[in-house]
Amino acid sequence: MIRIEGLRKTFHSRGRDVTAVDGVDLTVRDGEVFGVVGRSGAGKSTLLRCVNLLERPDAGTVTVDGMELTALREDQLRTARQRIGMIHQHFALLSSRTAAGNVAFALEVMGVPRRERAGRVAELLDLVGLGDRANAYPAQLSGGQKQRVGIARALAGQPRVLLSDEATSALDPETTSATLALLRELNQRLGLTILLITHEMDVVKRLCDSVAIMRDGRIVEAGPVNELIARPGSELARDLFPLGPVPELPDTTVLDVTLTGTTDESFVSTLSRRYDLDVRILGGAVEPLAGTRAGRLRLALPGSVDRHGDALRHLRDAGLTVEVAR
Questions:
Q1: Tally of domains within the chain
Q2: Which residue ranges does the record assign to the ABC transporter domain (predicted)?
Q3: For the chain, where are the E strands, in sequence order?
Q4: How many angstroms separate the most distant Cα atoms in the chain?
Q5: Which domain does 140 fall in, by range?
Q6: Quick one: pLDDT at residue 267?
Q7: Please, which of 12, 117, 176, 303 could form a disulfide with 307 given CB 3.0 to 4.6 Å?
Q8: Directed axis angle between helix 267-275 and helix 309-317, to 10°?
């Protein structure tokens, strides 16, 4: 659905060139929710704005739904953007217009005839659960309601792709949960492909099918969430399920074990019985993730690692990712 190849964007700031996006390649599959994660300044927002060419890249190509946007003229691009919705961190609503008026404005810009707008606006507000707030102005709406108006507006052109720029970072936890549930519902009901940027790992846990970690303008890790966390040394696994510093325990082997949805969660007790080991759980968590359950545990086994070859093989044969932490 979205294919990015060799994307590069440089800004000139304070007498020097700053490369915000540095040779990024990325593929987002049709119908998935794809998250781009990174710290402030990593290049996430610039990457997102390059997808709909609000920022035109210096090099590389962007293809959305089979159309290479970077090859289009400006008039062609304006038409193509109507099939790409965007929701913003701070809502970007017109304070002088009601909720219905904000959604209608998007339809006006697209040239939808007046007689068709009212029905479409009502349909979109109902879709996001705000049918009863059509005549409310932004100042009369909560943060979550404002974001729902923004989502309804982004859906005005019946897009195949929805871009989300930190859409939940200005919301409280309860409203964030409701907004993420709405995005998943829209993804499934409308078949939307969603590309979002976030710095919140909880958003990845609750919503994303695939993810990319971005640092200094580059993608350092990308793929389906369950596949990434199962890779030894995965940054995503460490960020989603942090275990903290490895403790110094004399005559002890410390293991970091990652489990995914296919893993039998009774593996600790099985390991203890089968190999007559006093297995201790030092920390960790197992949580819902990408429609299944996954997590990391830190285990302590008595003695040095060379005594536990059979036990480690057993864990890996069971589908677990096992790393010797100490």
A1: 2
A2: 2-241
A3: 2-13, 16-28, 33-37, 59-64, 67-68, 84-87, 161-165, 193-198, 210-215, 218-224, 252-259, 280-289, 292-302, 321-324
A4: 78
A5: 2-229
A6: 87
A7: 303
A8: 150
